[in-house]
Design brief:
The structure is a single chain. The protein is of the alpha/beta class and 737 residues long. It contains 27 helices and 21 strands.
């Protein structure tokens, strides 16, 4: 393996030594680019053709943009100001056009002289700056610009033939400066070591890596760009899938205790007392889990199911199978409210089977204990004792389960609920508590498109529950445009009253609690509308206004994350028992809260929540026989992207469809969540939704390569690429995923 360091040198060269310290510093700080290789992999976002103009009509607000356009006219105005009281202030207004729209550029003060000389009508140039609004018109103030001179001048050479690459840029570093820096390091692309095995590359007709880098930065035709992107997508998909395949391979080598339930044990007794039959999906997924538990290496399975599809029941049956086989099972929940809720529902479902060692307990029974950070000392001591002696077969808790003093008799299965809320280290610490690695079942109610499951959770086998149990009611969802149609909001509160009068209950969800200091600092997200400029609505304020106003006379309570755990539990118990009518809460109710009598939900400032979060919240209603109602209140204007997002949520109850919409609207870089370190996304050209086939094929190829050569000894180029992709932090993330 001594070859590897030698292979890495040209592209590992620091940018400082090639571009000079000033440029290198800006690239490192603003774009996360440190080496020649980093810069070569900073691909153009799109390309402008010299004869074709960009769409000024589609410019995004508050973003840094680069446009290619022609000067239509330029006017110099003089004005009086505090700095130039005698009317000597100067403002240059330049209007540029591209056929689709017009845009105004403004320059002030001493900054007017150079553009006044250079930006004459008819001149074509690239302009870069931040889009803002002045007098209801879009403008760029003091944009940087680069003139595009006629053919025959140096720019033809500099701007790569007919196609001008536009790079992801920042205010400190315009696209063309990045282009010039790329030009400087491009000769090093010849030294790039190819990570793809030759047979794979030739079999799929892909160009070599040096050729792909050359074509993506200096294409002569659109076909060059297509060749380069096809090749670079394969690199990203394949290297990532090799990292995941190596994890799966390593996991398969670990020992675990096989856990097979007894035919007449506690699981059989539990199934016999269920008041309903399992859905086809629940039976199928349970069988997949039991097959995994019966093997002698640890199960790593992701169970994704729609809100209310009965995941908890499937997880409980898996836990009982492990208890039958003499082991213990731990369920990890993200919040105390949820841990208490799970503990309540599990003990209710099990009845006398959960009363191990107690009078009235069934013959085949076990103890189910709760362990949270806020428990009293005596209850906590007893719970710890039950775990270490093996008296408790099932423990449900928050990350209090992970503390050093928690010891298990024989931990056989760890169930993690709502995986995205748990840190990697926490899950790993719990896994370390078994004598041998325990089996792992990860549950999520956020539906994940197949490709994301293959990318983010690629080291887990996936099971999907997509049927809803019988007796679940449909949920009607509507957008309530509070600014355009205030009477719609008044009607929303009337609907809540009607639900309560019919014996039901309602949730009102707000984005923040309301007693925060400096609460408004983070509230400003974009200048889309005044709705975005005010702080998000708060639980404490809204609850008070509702109790005094439209919901006067109803019993309104509040629930949020900063309340004492005992108070939270008391509020939840009262609401579950039907003693309160309306619960005004933050997203603490997003996951797992189960009150079948709650039929209506009003989400205030719904545009402040993500698509999957709205879907999760909506899943709290319609859990009983009465139909559910979800009202999405927003002040966003009709044409805004935020409203389109809400319309999409209102239009479908299919979580998988919504997760695709969610993904298409976010940057691809967000897909890997925690796996992203630093400012750069590890996915640059691969689009997780569009490139489903490439990801699936890359997964197959990666599995073959790793089965044949787990250490990649015969593929030094692939090892190098893997080291670059999976730096230490990402390696750990994938390892513990």
């Amino acid at each position: 393996m001594d070859l590897v360091p030698a292979l890495r040198e040209p592209l590992q060269q620091p940018l400082k030594s090639v571009l000079g310290p000033a440029t290198a510093k800006v690239m490192a700080e603003h774009l996360g680019l440190h080496t020649v290789g980093d810069l070569l992999h900073h691909y153009p976002r799109r390309y402008e053709e010299r004869g074709q103009l960009t769409h000024l009509a589609d410019l995004p607000m508050d973003e840094h943009v680069t446009v290619v356009a022609q000067v239509a006219d330029a006017r110099l105005h003089t004005f009086a100001s505090s700095r130039a009281p005698r009317g000597k202030g100067q403002r240059l207004e330049v209007t540029i056009t591209d056929g689709s729209g017009r845009l105004q550029l403004v320059f002030f003060g001493a900054g007017v002289h150079k553009p006044h000389k250079e930006l004459l009508p008819g001149t074509r140039a690239m302009f870069a700056g931040k889009v803002s609004v002045f007098n209801r018109r879009l403008q760029l103030a003091h944009p940087a610009y680069e003139l595009l001179r006629g053919d025959g001048e140096e720019s033809v050479e500099t701007w790569a033939g007919a196609l001008i690459p536009l790079y992801p840029a920042t205010a400190k570093l315009e696209s063309w400066k990045i282009g010039k820096a790329v030009q400087t390091v491009l000769p090093s692309a010849q030294e790039a070591v190819d990570p793809l095995p030759d047979s794979l590359r030739e079999g799929r007709g892909l160009v070599s890596l040096p050729e792909a880098l050359l074509k993506i930065h200096r294409p002569h035709t659109k076909a060059d760009i297509d060749d380069a992107r096809a090749r670079l997508k394969w690199d990203e998909a394949f290297v990532l899938q090799v990292a995941l395949a190596r994890r799966r391979h390593a996991d398969a080598q670990l020992p675990a205790v096989a856990r097979r339930p007894e035919p007449d044990g506690i699981l059989a007794a539990f199934d016999a007392r269920l008041p309903f039959t399992l859905t086809e999906g629940q039976r199928k997924v349970s069988q997949e889990i039991f097959d995994d538990l019966a093997t002698e290496h640890p199960m790593h399975r992701l169970l994704q199911g729609e809100v209310g599809s009965g995941k908890t029941l499937v997880a409980l049956r898996a836990m009982l199978a492990v208890v039958d086989a003499g082991g213990q099972a731990a369920m990890l929940a993200p919040t105390e409210v949820l841990a208490q809720q799970h503990h309540r529902s599990v003990t209710e479902m099990m009845g006398e089977l959960a009363e191990g060692g107690m009078l009235g307990g069934a013959e085949r029974s076990t103890k189910v204990v709760l362990l949270t950070g806020s428990m009293g000392a005596a209850a906590r001591r007893q719970a710890l004792l039950d775990l270490v002696t093996g008296e408790a077969g099932i423990v449900i808790g928050t990350h209090a389960l992970i503390e050093d003093k928690v010891q298990f008799h024989d931990l056989g299965l760890v169930v993690v609920d709502e995986q995205h809320r748990f840190g990697v280290e926490q899950r790993d610490a719990l896994r370390g508590k078994g004598k041998q690695p325990p089996h792992l079942l990860v549950m999520t109610a956020t539906p994940i498109p197949r490709t994301v499951a293959m990318t983010v959770f690629g080291d887990l086998e996936t099971s999907v529950l997509d049927q809803l149990p019988a007796g679940r009611s449909p949920i009607a969802s509507h957008v309530v445009p509070a600014a355009d149609k205030p009477h719609f909001l008044a009607r929303a509160w009337e609907r809540v009253r009607e639900e309560v009068e019919n014996g039901h209950q309602a949730y009102v969800v707000c984005p923040r609690i309301g007693d925060e200091e400096e609460g408004t600092k983070k509230a400003k997200k974009s200048a889309e509308d005044d709705a975005e400029k005010r702080p998000p609505l708060a639980v404490l304020d809204v609850a008070e206004q509702l109790a005094r106003g439209p919901l006067n006379g109803l019993k309104v309570e509040v629930l949020h994350g900063r309340m004492h755990p005992d108070d939270k539990d008391a509020v939840m118990r009262r609401f579950a028992a039907g003693e309160s009518d309306v619960l005004v809460a933050t997203t603490v109710i997003e996951v797992g809260v189960n009150v079948p009598n709650a039929t209506a939900m009003v989400i205030m400032d719904a545009d402040r929540f993500g698509v999957s979060q709205l879907h999760q919240l909506r899943g709290r209603v319609g859990r009983g026989a009465a139909p559910g109602l979800c009202l999405l209140v927003t002040e966003m204007p009709e044409a805004s992207p935020a409203r389109q997002r809400l319309n999409a949520v209102a239009a479908t109850l299919d979580g998988f469809e919504l997760s695709r919409i969610d993904l298409e609207q976010r940057r691809e870089g967000d897909v890997l969540g925690q796996a992203q370190s630093g400012a750069r996304s590890s996915l640059r050209v691969l689009a997780v939704i569009e490139d489903e086939e490439i990801i699936a094929e890359a997964r197959e190829e990666a599995a073959k390569v790793v089965a044949d050569d787990p250490e990649l000894e015969r593929l030094p180029g692939l090892r190098t690429a893997l080291d670059a992709l999976v730096d230490e932090e990402r390696e750990q993330y994938l390892e513990k995923g």
